[in-house]
């Protein structure tokens, strides 16, 4: 087995998918970062949620807002909501909704990360955000019509077109990194130019 060819092929597929997505995703990423920046400037917080792989990406996003290892700056208030020990998807969604109701305010923002192609696992959290009057940024799979249908006109939907969930997660990772960089640049300037 030629490991190099497998690795090179995987990297090439990812680079092609990222390159092909830039035009489609640049505008919603920019709008999402602007919405998040405004929430932070108004002393709001960003609450993030996802299940499974998406929960890991939500944790990465929060960690990057709390601390950028490449730059000294104040921590930004970002919280990763977790379903706790709930194993069933419906129970996990209910747990996320309870956390939004208990912790968030209308001055905060909910980031939903859902790479699945079917119904949204975070619909409960999204509904709870609606009850609070919170703005929402959703990183979703373009094949997931239920997530798109649950969003309001003022929300931002960053919809990745990917048939394979793994590829969607890879693209969502690039989106999350881009959002963090844009937020940080808006708040603290471009440290690459310092």
UniProtKB/TrEMBL annotation:
GO terms for molecular function: carbohydrate derivative binding. InterPro entries: SIS_dom, SIS_dom_sf, SIS_GmhA/DiaA_subfam. It comes from the Bacteria. Gene3D superfamilies: Glucose-6-phosphate isomerase like protein, domain 1 (3.40.50.10490). One of its GO terms (biological process) is carbohydrate derivative metabolic process. Residues 36-193 form the SIS domain. It holds the Pfam family SIS_2. Transmembrane segments: none annotated. PANTHER family: DNAA INITIATOR-ASSOCIATING PROTEIN DIAA, SEDOHEPTULOSE 7-PHOSPHATE ISOMERASE / DNAA INITIATOR-ASSOCIATING FACTOR FOR REPLICATION INITIATION. This is SIS domain-containing protein. It comes from Seongchinamella sediminis.
